[in-house]
């Protein structure tokens, strides 16, 4: 990975193109416990991550590990059911490889979803929160190393990493479905241990509303390759020290399962709207 990543992403995209006639311009990445949307498509084709050349394969329970391509209300969409995380031992470039492959496939806009711990007062288990901005606390960045100009420039602006336009669109769609989404700042940590209560107090002082172990590297890589990004967190638990019970992956999955139908409903209406204005 690294220097060869561009040609690898071209090769992976060529493989996917050979498996489906659909040419999605929008992709969705589904977080822990949120994989259902990937089964709710028409003309659905599933590709295991392991069959796509160079694709990283997740080891975490709760991450489906497949790429679903199909249509939602007629609009082609690529759905990552699962993702890999840096805490599994993957390099940053491997974590973002699927995004780079999707760009080669023709994807222009991506909706990144994740499970997160709620830090800000007032956030509740099961809330969906639009990511307005992030704080990268992982100590990693997928753009470290020699820059490949075919992906994008050496230095990229991150001042509107999460598209205000797509956020407004998501709010509009949520409202039409009878709910409002909060907005917040997502802090990404490396994991895999959950945070300590002292860390959460510190993160809150730094301005974080949510904490999780994904998304940020994908956003950075997506901006590098010129994709527009929408980020949606599902508050699966209150962050460490803010709830009575200890944190667990089971709780994350349980909450995800409980609210994921609402996410599916949102995505079904949102994806066709996000696709408006993309290339033919
Ligand atoms: N911390 C980090 N990652 C998470 C959490 C959390 O509390 N919940 C879901 N993913």
CATH superfamily: Nucleoside phosphorylase domain
Structural class: alpha/beta
Neighbour order of strands in the largest sheet: 5-8-7-6-9
Q: What is the terminal separation in angstroms?
A: 31 Å
* Share of residues in strands: 15-25%
Number of helices in the DSSP assignment: 7
Global outline: globular
What does this protein structure show overall?
It is globular and about 50 Å long. It has one domain (6-275): Rossmann fold (3-Layer(aba) Sandwich). The chain has a 5-stranded mixed β-barrel. It is α/β, with parallel strands linked by helices and 280 residues long. Helix 1 packs across helix 3 (97-105) and helix 4 (164-176) packs across helix 7. 49% of the residues are buried. The chain is built from 7 helices and 9 strands; from the N terminus they run H-E-E-E-E-H-H-E-E-H-E-H-E-H-E-H. Hypoxanthine binds next to strand 5, strand 8 and strand 9.
Give me some keywords for this one.
binds hypoxanthine, five-stranded mixed beta barrel, 24% strand, globular, Rossmann fold, 7 helices, 280 residues, 9 strands, alpha/beta
Task: Please outline what is shown here.
By secondary structure, the protein is an alpha/beta fold. The protein has a single domain (6-275), classed as Rossmann fold (3-Layer(aba) Sandwich), CATH 3.40.50.
Please outline the helices and strands.
Blueprint: H1 5-19, E1 26-30, E2 42-48, E3 66-72, E4 75-81, H2 92-95, H3 97-105, E5 109-118, E6 128-136, H4 164-176, E7 182-188, H5 197-205, E8 210-212, H6 216-224, E9 228-238, H7 249-275
Helix pairs in contact: 1-3, 4-7
This protein binds hypoxanthine (HPA).
The site of hypoxanthine (HPA) has 13 residues, from strand 5, strand 8 and strand 9.
């Amino acid at each position: 990975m690294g220097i060869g990543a561009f040609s690898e992403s071209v090769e992976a995209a060529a493989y996917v193109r050979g498996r489906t006639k659909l040419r999605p311009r929008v992709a969705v990445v589904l977080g822990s416990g949120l994989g259902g949307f990937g089964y709710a498509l028409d003309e659905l084709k599933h590709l295991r991550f392991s069959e796509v050349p160079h694709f990283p394969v997740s080891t975490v329970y709760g991450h489906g590990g497949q790429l679903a391509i199909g249509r939602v209300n007629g609009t082609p969409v690529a759905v990552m059911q699962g993702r890999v995380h840096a805490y599994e031992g993957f390099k940053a470039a491997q974590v973002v490889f699927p995004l780079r492959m999707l760009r080669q496939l023709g994807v222009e806009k991506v909706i990144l979803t994740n499970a997160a711990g709620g830090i800000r007062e007032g956030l509740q288990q099961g809330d969906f929160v639009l990511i307005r901005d992030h704080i990268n606390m992982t100590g990693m960045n997928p753009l470290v190393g020699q820059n490949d100009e075919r992906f994008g420039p050496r230095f990229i602006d991150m001042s509107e990493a999460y598209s205000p336009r797509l956020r407004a669109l998501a709010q509009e769609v949520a409202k039409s479905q009878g709910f409002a989404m909060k907005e917040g700042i997502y802090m990404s940590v490396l994991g895999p241990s959950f945070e300590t209560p002292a860390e959460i107090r510190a993160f809150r002082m730094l301005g974080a509303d949510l904490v999780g172990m994904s998304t940020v590297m994908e956003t950075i890589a997506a901006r590098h390759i010129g994709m527009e990004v929408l980020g949606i967190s599902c508050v699966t638990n209150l962050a460490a020290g803010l709830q009575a019970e200890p944190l667990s992956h089971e709780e994350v999955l349980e909450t995800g399962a409980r609210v994921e139908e609402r996410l599916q409903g949102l995505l079904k209406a949102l994806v066709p709207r996000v696709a408006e204005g993309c290339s033919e």
